[in-house]
Amino acid sequence: MILNEEQQLLKDSAKLLLSENAPMSALRAMRDAGDDHMPELWSKMSEAGWPGIVIPDAYSGLEFGYVGAGVVLEEMGRTLALSPFLSSAVVAASLINQLGSEQQKEKYLPGIATGELTAVLAADETGFFDLSTIETTASASGDDYVLSGNKRGVIDGHNADLLLVVTGGDAGMSVFAVESGAEGVTSKTRLIVDSQRAADITLDNVTVSGDALLGSLGGASEAMEFTIDVAAACSAAEMLGISIETFERTVGYLKEREQFGSKIGTFQGLQHRAAQLFAEIEVSKSAVLAALQALDANSEKRSVLASMAKAKCSKVVRNATEEGVQMHGGIGMTDEFDIGFFMKRAAVCRQAYGDYHFHADRFATLRGY
Amino acid sequence: MYGTELNKLRQELYMAIGSTDALNFDTDSKGALVRNWLRSKANSIEGGTTEVQLNIIAKRILGLPA
C-alpha cells in the first residue's frame, strides 16, 4: 500500500507550501492576536487548488480523490495548519456532491473549490457525534421549509458561509443548506483548547426555500453514512500527521537531551515506549491509507475501514502526544515549547466527527457484533 | 507516581465524557475541565517525573540491581 507518483508529488508540494506558510509560529501568532482563522494560508491553499481536491472536475474541482485529501491533511497535521480544508473542502463538499441535485452541486461546489465559499456540517446536538439523537426539525410550509433546533460544538462553524444542517424527527433525516446569515440563525462562538473555535448554533424558525433541501426529504441517511466515512478517514489522516511529527520531535529529543549523566535515549524504559509507538504509527499509516483508497474505489469496505482508521488513530494520537509531552519533561509542559500544541490539537481531532467510542462501536456494528 | 498517573487517566475520562463542550478554553471556570486535563500532564513531570519515581521504586523499594 503505497502512494502513486502523483499522490507523492502532491504530498511533497503540500509539505513545501505548509512549511512556508503555516509554520508553528503562524499558529502562535494567530493565537496571541486572538484571531480565529488564517486567511493568508487559506489564500495560498486556494491558489494551489486544494479546496477542490475531492470535487469533480465538472464543478471546477481537481477531482484528485481522497488519498490526495489525506496526504494534504497528514502534512497539515504535521504543522498544525489551521484552515477550513477538512470541514469545508472535504466533508461539506463530499456531502453536497453525494446528496445534492445537479443544480445544487453547480450552485455550491465551484465556490467551495476555489475557496471563496466555506461550508460546514452542522450535525451534533449533544456535543457528541450521534445522528440518532437529532431533534432539529424541518416542517414544510408551502414550497419552503421552517427549521428549528440547536447544533452544538460545530468546529469551524464560526466563519462558515453555509451550514449543512441535519434535521430529523418524523420527516426522517434530511440535510438543508442554510446560509449562516439567514434570519433566525444565531451562533455563539467559543474558544477551544487548540485556539480554534467551535460554534453553538440556534435555528429559531428559520425559513429556507425548497431548493435548500439537499436531495429528498428524509432521504439523507445513505449520504450521511458516506460523509461519516469521509470525515473519519480524513480526520484520521490529520491525526496521523500529528502523531508522526510529535513522534519524530520526541525521538530527536531523546537523542540529544542529557540527564543523570547520559543521553535520556539510552534509558531502556524510554526506548521501549518509543519503539512501541513506532509500531503503532506504522500500523496507523496502513489503516489510514486503506481507508482513503477504499473511498476512492467506492469499495463496500469503506465504512469499516474508515471507522477503524479513526478509532485507531484516535488512540495512537492520544498516546503519541501524551508521550511527546512526558518525554520532553520540564520543557514539554511549557507554553514556550511547541510540543504541547500537538496535544491540544489532538484533543480536538479526537472529538470531531465521532470520537474513539463512536467509531469503535460503528466498526463493531458493521462487523456484525 | 500512582496518583499522578491515575489523575491523568481520570482527566482523560472527564474529557471523553465531556464531549466537545469539554474542549472549551474560556478563561472563567467553565474552561476548568480542559485546564485540569492540561495540568494533569504536568503533574507527572514536576517534582520528579513518573519515570524517576519508577526508578526509585525499582531500586530502593524492590532492590532491583542498578
At a glance:
The complex is a heterodimer of chains A (369) and B (66). Chain A has 369 residues and is an alpha+beta fold. Chain A has twelve helices and ten strands.
- The biggest beta sheet of chain A, please? 4 strands, mixed
Most extensive interface: A-B, 35 and 25 residues
Strand % of chain A is 15-25%
Summed up, the helix count of chain A is 12
Order of helices and strands of chain B: HHH
Element pattern of chain A in H and E: HHHHHHEEEEEEEEHEEHHHHH
Measured as a percent range, the helix fraction of chain B is 55-70%
Distance between the termini of chain B: 20 Å
Stretches of chain B where pLDDT is under 50 for at least 5 consecutive residues are: none
Query: What kind of oligomer do you see?
Result: heterodimer
* Overall outline of chain A: globular
Number of strands of chain A: 10
Any idea what the radius of gyration of chain B is? 16 Å
- Overall residue-averaged pLDDT value of chain B: 89
Main attributes?
heterodimer, A: 369 residues, alpha+beta, four-stranded mixed beta sheet, four-stranded antiparallel beta sheet, B: 66 residues, mainly alpha, 3 helices, 62% helix, 0% strand
